[in-house]
Every structure is written in structure tokens, then in C-alpha cells.
Amino acid sequence: MEKLIPAVNKLQDVFGQLGLDSPVDLPQIMVVGSQSSGKSSVLEAFVGRDFLPRGSGIVTRRPTIVQMIQTKPDKLKGEQEEVDKTVEKKGKQQEDETGKDTKYGDEWVEFLHIPNKRFYDFEQVRQEIEAETDRTTGKNKGISPKPINLKVYSPNVVDLTVVDLPGLTKVPVGDQPDDIEKLIRAMIMSYIERPNAIVLAVHPANADLATSDALQMAKSVDPEGDRTIGVITKLDLMDKGTDALEWLQGKVYKLKRGYVGVVNRSQADINSHKTIQEAREAEKRFFKEHPVYKNFADQMGSEYLAKKLSGLLMDHIRKCLPDLRTKINSQLKEKQKELLKLGSALGDNEDIGAALLSIINHYAMEFNQALEGKAHEVISATELYGGARINYIFHDIYAKELDKMDPFEDLTLDDMRTAIRNATGHRSSLFIPEYGFDLLIKKQIEKFNLPAQTCVDLVYNELQRLAVALDHDDLARFERLESRLGEVTGDLLRRLKEPTSQVVADLVDMEISYINTRHPDFIGGNRAMTKLFRSMQAAEERQRAAAAAAQGQPQNMPQGSGYPPNSSQQSPPQGSPTGPGGRGLPPPNQQQQPQTTGRPSFQGPRPQQNATGSGPQSAQPQQATNQPYNYYSGQPNNNATEENAVDEQDKKLEDGADDISLYNVPEHIKAGNGRPLNEREHMEIEMIRTLLQSYFDVVRKNLQDYVPKAIMKFLVLKFRDELHSELVTSLYKEDNPDELLQESSETTERRKELRKMISILKRASQVINEVRESENAES
């Protein structure tokens, strides 16, 4: 177990030697406190030497990692023999400031930034810390988060590693920015928020514990106090009659790791050159003789604190060691995988052409796999990728957009009425003219062109996106090749898009060019008329029921059933919507009569008129007649010819045009001339709306099927099939393939960083394995 702390020290050195932050969270003790709280004095008491910078204002301006290593006699002998060889080789001896020969000194310091050099003079250590701080932060009180690493070898220390962080200050001095307090707090938080960090919160006894910045920051990252130890300094400077017993016992603010009280050297002791050893003896006497602290003297003082921290750190490392091993191995595999993706730099003797052809083949294969949904390495469970996105465009964007299209968009009743009238020319039509239907449906079919062309654009953009997003490792290495590949794929896509757009436009034009009224899905004229009559009959039934309910009479009352006859039960006049000759139904005695005019007679609603043509209808029942009813006029065909009835209706169509005379023909004439629809026009428009709706659905269904097929045939699959040959033709046969395979500077630097990191992680893994082997040997 005694190798645990040295193992972590080695890990710290491994990551610090090359100026890299530790990729794993190493167990360390972070010393936090406000300016002049006694942090430096506590650390010097651990070491037993004066070696940290002192002065007014902020002194510790960079984090200082102090690794204390206890030297053993046999180890010290071996280390000294190594020093002897070095001294003999150089032909000189190292001397301290007093000129005393310290060749055989048993205490020394080594800096990570000055390898293979020992400092036996601790005053020189102080000077080197100040010099190294100034090299990074300047000489006017600047700060930096970059740590200074040093090792202290001594038989008088315990194995311990602490990180002395800058003291909290509020007022900027020198070159410090106005937000110096915020910057220092952020720096401290970046160290103590690590889960494996033990926080040593230092607070002076002559200040209220409730104002402790160190405890406040420790609580923010360790609210339960599981990894925080409190240190109360300057207990000898408290006012007479007061003590910090309640603080030390955790009655004011409880910490699971507890508190330790220490007594520092005063400034007068430092000025009088009082040694650390003398200060330790004075500290022991203080606690043994103090009336309050004497019962806890064995749990107070710097020596006890150092041993407690060493044991605590060792236990903490033991708990963290398995996780450290896992994280280091995971980091190592991750970096090795990234380096493998970058590949090795192409040598002068390698076949550049073969390497280029291999990259082209791999890229084309990856595109095909992404399109077919076989790119397992990049397929995500969180979003659609590759060909699945194109499928989404076809079925969830384009098809749904067509489903939302209104067959009567921008088509008014006047437009339909005008189209019908224009299609008849100078004649008066007997039926709905087919040319009017063609004119209207072609106008509506043209509206399918915009969503179809938009679908082409969406798929084109998706192919571009996929070509750029392919995560091919070699492309990141060669910027020139990546750029040229993008140009070639873009040119190919643009060449294929134009004919694809033309094919899609032709599909819409094909639908316009021939209106197939015999399409099996088209409703046709006969079925449309039947549907219309049925809807009219249903409407008539609803009107009859509403009229009967309004008069308070029961519906469908049988005749001759004992009810007294009244006017409402008698046969209404022909043309009444509630009588036997109502909408869609012929008179009772006409239902069984065969047609005698040679063409069907359309029965329908007739205007309700009395003898004078207006006012309430006569209560006299109409006599049954065998004359057929004309659908348009709603009156009996007294001349027994449908032609006369139709001519009569055509004449009525001109009613309401009182402002038009022989000598006053308007320049622009509307079909309706501002009047409402008459019976005939209402029937015609309902009929043509049914036909338009049916044929619009036929075209919609066709284009939902054929437009995606055309895009796949002429754009997607053609691009896939021609991609490889296009890349080979454009790239492989270029005069200077060496330029295409020239790596970017970022790739070269990244490869160097990865190799460096892999080497470091391997050394770190080796250190962890040595500790594990040592544990197995002990067990």
C-alpha cells in the first residue's frame, strides 16, 4: 500500500512532463484558503523547510503541486552514490549559501520543468518558484492556471501530495484584471470540483467561521462534506478567553472528515529565523499546555495533520485505483482508434496512384451502403440517415403534400359556370359539355408541377448532404482531395438534376395532354349522375321530414287508414318539394309510364307557384297527368317534346340581363352576370365538381407513384451508378495526384499529439499495473 501515493505521483509526472492536462481525474489534496490564511505555513510545516514565496498581497499566483517523498536510508545511500558520480564527472561540488559542503545532503527538491537537476538550497527553491511564476504570468502580480510541479525528497516527510492553490482575494493589484476574484474562484473550482479531489479548507481562527471562503467553496462542490477536511490556523492569536473548540468539534459547521487545529509561525518568528523544527516543538507545547485543547493535543498540530492526510490520501487512492485503471485503458483505446483512422503518413516510396484509387473505391462503396441502409457504423438510432431520409421525403413530405391539395383551389363557381358556357359555343347545350370539363381539369392538373419539382430539389439537396457527410477517414487527412471530391460529386449531381426535372415535368404534361375519362378509377358521367340524384333524393327526404315536423304531422302516414283527410294530406301540386312530384321523383301515375319521347325525361324540383305565379300555393289538388316533366323547367311538358322544354329553359337563362340591349353589349361579359345560380346551373356545377374531384384524385394517385420512381431512376440510382466512374475519370487521371494526397498541417499535428498521448497513457497503464502486481504480491 505504501506504493500508492508514489504511483499517483508518477502518473502526475507522466502527464505533466509533456505539458498535458491529466486525461483522468487523479486523487489529490487541494489546499484552499483566503489570502494570508496560513496556507503556505501549513505546507512548509509538512516539509519542515522554508521554500514557498512570501510577501504582501497575493503571493501564490500559480497552482503549485508539491510531492513529498520520504527517503529511506538504503534508498538514500543509492541516491547519494548517484550524486557522487555526477559530482566527480563535473569536477565540482554543490554548495549552499553558507558555503557548506552539501554533497551528501539528505534533503533536496526537483522541478519537473528542470529535469535532472537537484536543489539542495531551499532558498534557491523559493527563487525558482518565483522565477517560473514570472515566466508565465509576468512580474506584476498576474495569475495562471498552469501548475508548477516540484518534488521534495526528505527523511522527515510523509508520502503526501498537495496542490497549493492561489489565495482568494477581492482587490486587484498590479496587472491583475478587475475581475481577479472571479478568475481565482474559477481556477480553484476547476481543481476542487473533480470527484477525486480532497479539499483541505484552511481558515484562520481569528476570523469568524461563518465568513470562511474556503468552506463556502468546498460546500458548493462537496455539500455532504465527504471529501473536505477543515484546518483551523492561528489558534494562538485568538483573543484571551476565547477558543475554537466548537469549531474543531464540528458544532458550528460539521464535516465528516473533521477539523485539525494548527499553530503557525508568526512573522516575528520568521524574521528571527525560527526554524520549522523549533516551531513544531512550540506547537506541541501550546496544545499540551492549553486548558481547552490539552485533552485533544494528540489530534492537533502539523505533524498529526500530515499523517492524517497521508493515510486519507492512501485510502482515497485505493478506492479510486480500479476506476483509474479503467479510465486510462479506455483513453488508450480511444486514442489508438483515432490514430488508426488518421493512418500513417504516405512515404516517398508508396504508390500514390494506388492509394488514391483505394480512397475512391472506399468512398463510392460507403455512399452505396448509406443509400441502401447498410452503413452500420454511422447509422444512428436517434435520427434518419442516408436512403431513409430520401424515403421520408417521398412518403412523408411529397405524398402528404399532394394529399393536402384541394382540387378546387383558385376555382370559383363563376369560373366553372363560365367554362361550361364557353364550351357550348353558339349553341345551347343539352348536357354538360365535355370540353368544359377538360378545360377546368387541365388547369387544376398544372398545380401538381410545383410540388413535383420541389420533391426533385429536396432529393437533390439530400444527395449533396449525404455526399459531404460521409465519414470517410482518409478525406479528413487530405484537404485538397476532399475539396476536389466535393466539386466532382456536385458537378455530377447538377448534370443529373436537369434531365430529372424535365422527366418529372413531362409526367405532369402527360396527365394534361390526355384526359382519360375511361380510367377505371374515374367515376364517369353515369355514376356521377346517379350519385347526384341520390344526394338530391336524400336532401329531399330531409326537407320533407323537416316540413312534416314543422307542421306537427307524423311522417309517412298511410292513406285511407282512418285519419280524417285535410289539405296537408292531399296530393300537393306538382312541383312541390313535399309532394309526389317533388325533387327527383315523378308523379305517382308517371312512375310506371314508359318513356315515349325517345330520350330520358329528367324529373326534378319545380318552382312553387300559384295561379298568379306568386304568393302561397293553391290548396286545390293537382290532377295527375301522364305528360313527362322537364327537369330544367320543373313544369309539365304540355307539347310532349323535350326540345321545346329545353328551348324554354335556355330562354330563361337570359332572364335578369335587363341592362343588356341590342345597342349595349358589354366589352367583358360574365356567364352569371352577377345573378345567383338557377336550377340548371346548380345541377351542372354539382355534376362537374363531382367529375373534377374524381379525376383530380386519379392524377394525384398517379403522380404520387410515378414522380418518386422517376427521381429514383434518373437522379438517385443514376448518381450511385456513375459516381465511381466519374471520380476515377476526374481524379485518378489528374496529372498531379501527389497534390491531392498532401496532408493538412492540422492532420500532421494531430497525429503527433495522438502518438504522444498514446505513449503517455501506456506509461500510465504500466504504473497502474505495477501497483496491482504489488498488491497481489502482498496478498
* Strand order in the sheet with the most strands: 4-3-5-2-6-1-7-8-9
Anisotropy-based shape: elongated
For the record, what CATH class of one domain applies? Alpha Beta
Count every helix, treating DSSP H or I runs of 4 or more residues as helices. Answer: 22
Q: Please name the fourth-level CATH homologous superfamily of one domain.
A: P-loop containing nucleotide triphosphate hydrolases
Please state the second-level CATH architecture of one domain: 3-Layer(aba) Sandwich
Structural class: alpha/beta
* Helix percent band: 40-55%
N→C terminal distance: 11 Å
EC number: 3.6.5.5
Organism: Galdieria sulphuraria (Red alga)
GO molecular function: GTP binding; GTPase activity; microtubule binding
Pfam families: Dynamin_M, Dynamin_N, GED
What can you see in these coordinates?
Residues 72-101, 536-647 are annotated as: Disordered. Residues 545-577, 590-601 have a biased composition (Low complexity). Belongs to the TRAFAC class dynamin-like GTPase superfamily. Dynamin/Fzo/YdjA family. Residues 606-642 have a biased composition (Polar residues). The chain is of the alpha/beta class and 779 residues long. Among the domains are: 4-87 and 104-317, P-loop containing nucleotide triphosphate hydrolases (Rossmann fold); 353-521 and 681-743, Dynamin, middle domain (Four Helix Bundle (Hemerythrin (Met), subunit A)), CATH 1.20.120. Helix content is 51%, strand content 7%. It is built from 22 helices and 9 strands. The protein is elongated, with a radius of gyration of 50 Å. The termini are close together. Residues 86-104, 557-647 and 652-657 have low confidence and may be disordered.
